[in-house]
Task: inverse folding
């Protein structure tokens, strides 16, 4: 007899700042549904209250980058190296009437400076904080631009998870600010409601973690910061035993996609498209070179970010051309 899937409502009491085999916050099983609230990239909750320092991951021997506090990690029963973890994003319900964005002095695509005290010779950018109003009923974000002729702007919202992933391979622990083969801070707008994500399992239990909800973001996240806010997230989990994949995959109604993360940007582009071609060959029966030809003509790609320690490119293939 198959076990009945459980719906778990999880209230975090501790937030991790790294992807890795950290102490599990909770155990779940394939088929289970997980519902949990997130905090924003600076650690503010849905009421605008910042989580206390003792609720953040700490170590007596080092300090952590404070960005993108993560919910989890969740230990997935029966998940073993060589499997693929399946995560269906069923809901991202924004639950705060505001979001913030900013221009940071030492972060973004207009500077090669990065958090971690590696400063180059260019002048720091001017610090600016932008507070957006979110009209959740109309699904728009509103920003006053007093120094610009337009005065005020409204943009459509498209909530997604900026950070979601599993423990990396080879025993590594990676900051929540970094994307990689384990997922992480990919900043791909396709990690939204209705999408199904596939992550390679490198560590027994997978150790799924997520956070960093964005209400909206443009390609590349060029200033380094999206519309940072909070949400209640509902995920349905499953497991593909013996399904060995190398990089995160995403599927929605119209596309199959692969996220590749590296530097320089061209390397991320190559990884994403190479892994997408492998998917077409292994799962859909394409001849490799015929698949490459078709991908070359009908494929699309999106840049997730060009600001994190690694950049992310999403390669996309339209489902209407699948056999």
Result:
């Amino acid at each position: 007899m198959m076990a009945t899937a459980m719906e778990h409502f999880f209230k975090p009491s501790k937030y991790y700042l790294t992807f890795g085999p950290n102490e599990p916050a909770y155990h779940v099983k394939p088929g289970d549904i997980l519902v949990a609230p997130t905090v924003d990239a600076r650690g503010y909750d849905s009421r605008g209250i910042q989580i206390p320092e003792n609720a953040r991951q700490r170590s007596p021997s080092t300090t952590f980058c404070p960005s993108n506090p993560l919910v989890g990690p969740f230990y997935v029963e029966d998940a073993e190296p060589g499997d693929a973890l399946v995560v269906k994003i069923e809901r991202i319900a924004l639950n705060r009437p505001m979001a913030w964005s900013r221009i940071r002095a030492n972060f973004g695509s207009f500077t090669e400076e990065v958090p971690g005290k590696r400063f180059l010779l260019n002048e720091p950018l001017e610090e600016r904080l932008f507070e957006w109003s979110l009209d959740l009923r109309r699904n728009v974000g509103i920003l006053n631009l007093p120094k610009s002729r337009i005065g005020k702007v409204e943009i459509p919202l498209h909530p997604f998870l900026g950070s979601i992933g599993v423990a990396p391979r080879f025993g590594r622990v990676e900051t929540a600010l970094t994307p990689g083969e384990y997922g992480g801070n990919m900043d791909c707008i396709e990690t939204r409601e209705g999408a199904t994500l596939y992550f390679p399992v490198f560590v027994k239990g997978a150790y799924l973690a997520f956070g960093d909800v964005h209400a909206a973001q443009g390609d590349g996240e060029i200033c380094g910061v999206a519309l940072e806010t909070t949400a209640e997230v509902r995920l349905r989990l499953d497991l593909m035993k013996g399904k060995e994949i190398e990089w995160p995959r995403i599927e929605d109604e119209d596309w199959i996609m692969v996220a590749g993360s590296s530097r320089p940007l061209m390397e991320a582009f190559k990884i994403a498209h190479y892994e997408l071609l492998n998917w077409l060959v292994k799962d859909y029966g394409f001849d490799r070179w015929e698949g490459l030809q078709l991908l070359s003509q009908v494929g699309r790609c999106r840049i997730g970010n060009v600001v994190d320690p690694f950049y992310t490119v999403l390669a996309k293939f339209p489902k209407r051309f699948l056999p």
